[in-house]
């Protein structure tokens, strides 16, 4: 029952309109015309797994029960920490985190914006997350999320876009 409630809560949060973020911070991609032709065939999860540098993220999504959600319709923008980013967390802490589904879900949903936002469309300011706590986006000297540099942008997926970061973001 609790698992179902969490999935429903996450799904409801993901279905929240992205218009505030899109209007104030970025343009969402259109599914018509040229952009439609460029859309990837794999969803966010399959795209991350295929990249090979997000094994810990994929395992964490599985442990949190978020795989099916991020395989859903979207659109999503995921600030995806690499395996090296997760390696910065002490092993004992990471192992404990992977066993704490509530905390893990909170951290992972803090990396997800319920909109498709490409790097060229990002504007400085607060960006809403599925977690409910906003991310602080800055653009001087490159895109930064809560002071963490985005190291690779615009990895297209059928249901959104992935931007790669080298540090795991922690909600307050």
List its traits:
alpha+beta; 7 strands
Write structural notes for this entry.
It is a single chain. The chain has 172 residues and is α+β, with helices and mostly antiparallel strands. The protein is 41% helix and 19% strand. It is built from nine helices and seven strands, in the order ααααααβαααββββββ. The chain has helices spanning 2-14, 19-24, 33-38, 44-51, 55-64, 67-70, 83-87, 91-99, 101-109; strands at 76-81, 112-113, 125-127, 135-138, 144-145, 148-157, 160-165. It has a seven-stranded mixed sheet with strand order 2-1-7-6-5-4-3. A hairpin with a 2-residue loop joins strand 6 (148-157) and strand 7 (160-165). Helix 5 crosses helix 9. The radius of gyration is 15 Å and the shape is globular. The protein starts with a helix and ends in a 7-residue tail after the last strand. Mean pLDDT is 81; it is low at 1-39.
Number of strands: 7
The end-to-end span amounts to 27 Å
Q: Nearest-angstrom radius of gyration?
A: 15 Å
Strand content: 15-25%
How are helices and strands ordered from N to C?
HHHHHHEHHHEEEEEE
How does the overall form come out from the CA principal axes?
globular
Average pLDDT figure = 81
Secondary structure tally, helices:
9
For the sheet with most strands, the description reads: 7 strands, mixed
Helix content: 40-55%
Side by side, the strands of the main sheet go: 2-1-7-6-5-4-3
Stretches where pLDDT falls below 50 for ≥5 residues?
A: 1-39
Structural class: alpha+beta
């Amino acid at each position: 029952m609790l698992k179902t409630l969490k999935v429903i809560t996450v799904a409801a949060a993901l279905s929240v309109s992205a218009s505030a973020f899109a209007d104030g911070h970025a343009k969402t991609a259109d599914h018509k015309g040229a952009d439609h032709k460029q859309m990837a065939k794999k969803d966010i999860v399959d795209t991350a797994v295929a990249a090979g540098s997000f094994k810990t993220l994929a395992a964490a999504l599985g442990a949190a029960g978020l795989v099916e959600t991020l395989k859903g319709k979207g659109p999503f923008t995921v600030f995806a920490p690499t395996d090296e980013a997760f390696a910065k967390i002490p092993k004992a802490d990471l192992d404990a985190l992977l066993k704490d589904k509530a905390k893990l879900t909170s951290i992972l949903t803090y990396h997800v914006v319920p909109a498709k936002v490409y790097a060229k469309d990002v504007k400085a300011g607060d960006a809403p997350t599925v977690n409910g706590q906003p991310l602080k986006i800055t653009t001087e000297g490159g895109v930064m999320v809560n002071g963490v540099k985005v190291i690779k942008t615009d990895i297209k997926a059928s249901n959104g876009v992935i931007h790669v970061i080298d540090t795991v973001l922690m909600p307050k």
